[in-house]
Specification:
- The chain is of the alpha+beta class and 68 residues long.
- It has one domain.
- It contains one helix and three strands.
- The chain has a three-stranded antiparallel β-sheet with strand order 1-2-3, with helices on one face.
- The radius of gyration is 13 Å and the shape is elongated.
- 12% of the residues are buried.
- The model has no long low-confidence stretch (mean pLDDT 91).
């Protein structure tokens, strides 16, 4: 699987999925998929906070798949 795995295939997207005051959540997508592979269960009051926590979640996800 290491040959097929590329960290650049993954990205964080922030979407408005609820009504204010906390409408934002992060979603992690993998290239070639139209649905997220992970997403936040919490909603955030700002896009920037959602993006920041999504980036942390992405780093944690990718650390599970470290290539040698």
């Amino acid at each position: 699987m290491a040959g097929e795995f590329d960290h650049s295939d993954f990205s964080v997207v922030v979407k408005q999925r609820a009504a204010p005051p906390k409408p934002w959540r992060w979603e992690i997508y993998r290239a070639g998929r139209s649905s997220p592979i992970r997403y936040s269960t919490d909603y955030f009051d700002s896009m920037s906070l959602a993006r920041k926590t999504g980036q942390v979640a992405l780093r944690l996800l990718l650390s599970e798949y470290q290539t040698e």
